[in-house]
Amino acid sequence: MSFATKLMLSFLSLGVITIWGLTLNGIVAKIFARVQGRLGPPFWQPFIDIIKNNAKRTTVSHGIMFYLGPVFRIAGGIGTYMFIPAVLGSVMFSNYSVSGDVFLVMYFIFFGQLGMALGAGEGGHPYSAIGVARGLAQMTAFEVPFALSVISLAVQYHTLNITEIVMAQQGSILNWTLFTNPLAVIAAMIAMLGMTMYNPFSVVIAPQETPIGPPTEYSASFLGLLATNRGIFNAAKLVLFMNLYFGGATNIISMLVKTFAIYMFSVFVGVAFPRFKTEDSIRFFLKVPALLGALAIVVWLI
């Protein structure tokens, strides 16, 4: 396959996953509204918001890094997805999975969040530093159990290549990591609650407080860029968890169903629990889930 053909197929795959991620965001907003007794926006509202924001322009300037923040953020989202096989064996949805491994994908996850922190730090809001400190502290905390879980998978499957991990889970549902290494799955799923930043881990934007996060700092096409990345990044992380812990997907329908089910786990937790304080959130990730991740490694080393 030529480089141009591969690039075109990868961007088509990216377009599909962006649409799916934004649709999931719209569905989740509707679910939260219904639980709270509201009608809520239509599920296609994220698409309308992106079109509206990209049609606007802004003359406000806070410096170069402030506007590079959304660029770094979406680069992290695209990079995360491009090195993950969304559908095993598919020419279109294999992306560049043969060129990277799970550690590279984890780096892209961190890259996007760090870029956003650098951008927010140059904003004009006096509380930007608080949001940056909250975000980086919680990110460091939930990365600990997730990293331990991934190390456990490396010990179990003797590889860090995501495609090889998915292939090792084929043949039967009992071959899924969910059944062969449940401690690693539990640790990772708890870590995912922090990644989605729904309750009880919504300490960055803190919706119960006066909004002071990126949605109020950025406007116009920069806000549209962040909204687009929200769809890409969420869907990419769901595909990653599906591949590592739930057997991957061999067709597009299986991918959509599995990622939806994984996402609903964090949504159900989010609507049922109030928000932790920042220090409580950090302590939580460094206790039980980190211990479970460490035990998952020990079990496969023995």
Give a description of the structure.
With 302 residues, this protein is mainly α. The chain has one domain (3-301). The protein has helices at 3-35, 45-54, 64-82, 102-121, 128-157, 162-168, 177-180, 182-196, 214-217, 220-245, 252-272, 278-285, 288-301. Helix 1 runs parallel beside helix 11, helix 3 packs parallel to helix 10 (220-245) and helix 4 runs antiparallel to helix 5. The longest helix has 33 residues, at 3-35. The N and C termini lie far apart (43 Å). The mean pLDDT is 86.
Structure summarized in a few sentences:
This protein is mainly alpha-helical and 302 residues long. It has 13 helices and no strands.
Considering the chains and any ligands shown, give keywords for the structure.
single chain, 302 residues, mainly alpha, 70% helix
